[in-house]
Amino acid sequence: MMQLLYLDPGSGSYLVQVIIAAVLGVIFYFKSGWNWIKSFFVKTPPKEEEENESAD
Amino acid sequence: MNQLINHHPASFRDPSGFIYEQNGTVYRFVSTIYASHYSLLMNSGLAAELQKKNLLLAFSEATDNHLGRADWYKTLVPQQLPFISYAWEWSFSQLKDAALATLAVCKLALQKGMILKDATHTNMQWVDGKWKLIDTLSFETYTTGESWIAYRQFCECFLNPLLVAAHTGMEVNRLLLSYPDGVPANITAKLLPFKTKFNAVVYLHVHLQAKLAAKPATEQKGSGKKLSQKNIEQILESLCSCIEGLNLPQQTTTWNNYYSETILSETYLSEKKKLISAILADESYKSVIDLGANEGEFSLLCRQDASVIATDFDSACIDSLYNRLKKEKRKNILPLVLDLTYPSPAMGWMNAERKAFFSRANADVCMALALIHHFAIAKNISFGQLASFFASICKTLIIEFVPKEDPKVQSMLQWRKDIFEEFTVEEFEKAFASFFSLQQKVTVNGSQRTIFVYRKK
User: Does the keyword Ribonucleoprotein apply (chain B) (predicted)?
Assistant: First the structure.
């Protein structure tokens, strides 16, 4: 891994990311379930165009 | 032929390549150790797509190996930037948008099998009205199972200062001046109010990280679990929605709403605008620096093809100017937070990595409107010192003199002893005459204030 030549190995904070990913996974799981239920009752508005897209 | 090659002093941390300057052009050297990553960047279409979305600085390839090095792989010619600004000169919204652009770059990179290995604010610049990544070598091939190597750096450089600013009102520019490499999680955790521990996302990205950072890196390994690409995407998404939701606490400073609330207002402002427009119309200039720009009313009068730097020490003013420019799609004005009595210093290794503000900034025209009485009276800076300062940064100076009789100056003198006998228009003119020749002198209708146009001798 070339980046290790100049960054200390802790800087990726692997463990934090593993924990965050696990928690987010759980949140995402419940959220998508909730959105699935919600979708029966609420009509979702169409998403707006991405702003950073080049206009010129 | 002049073969002077200057290795840029801020470009040494990454072995993949570096920036150098030759005959006034900035080039990027790409080393053979970066070859596979560079080919993926180009062949996957990532570079093209990022440039289409205005997220990556334009660059082209050149064929010369100027340096004659054996590890030469490519020479890149990036779009030349007239001015580099630093995060300690940005307002809240500027840092926020730079953060969101960094995340957008990383998300797109992941879709193309790459990831950002650096996520620092020094790699972002506001170019032509868009936040762009300027370091072409920040990408590396993504390997499944790996974590996001730049995660901690991103949090320290962007998320943490933004969170502290949003929760406490501290200014991001001051935070990042104290912590140029980013605010560490343990400091952030102490600065944030207790209630943030109950916000799941803030808890994970800050408080948890602060706890774990106390452990040595070796103890952090060995948790067997591998991160999937989906995991990284979710982390990026959570950072994105967290940052999008951050806003500065509402506050009124002395200087924002200055024009709408001040007794001077309306006629004075419109008269002054007319005058400045007329003066600017007579000048030929390519660059302007507006010092004490407030919310940029006068910067906006400059020609749209001139590059304008508008500075003020009040970050709330700069923040509202920045948001206005974004809304009106004015691309030629760069708003920056700058305290003229403490301008950004030279920093980094050997004091050469990040340049001082006034070794980067100079302009054809400098505007200093309703500014110098603050220095003369509040900071005891003499007219002589002011004149020599302005002569060092510009060719033409548009400067406003506010006399002692003016209500604003009177209010400044209200609580302090008037030791400023030399604060007269005669002394002012005498001091400036030794550096400048007078071109024009006009009184702003309905006030005792005078605008001088000076040309440097």
Answer: no
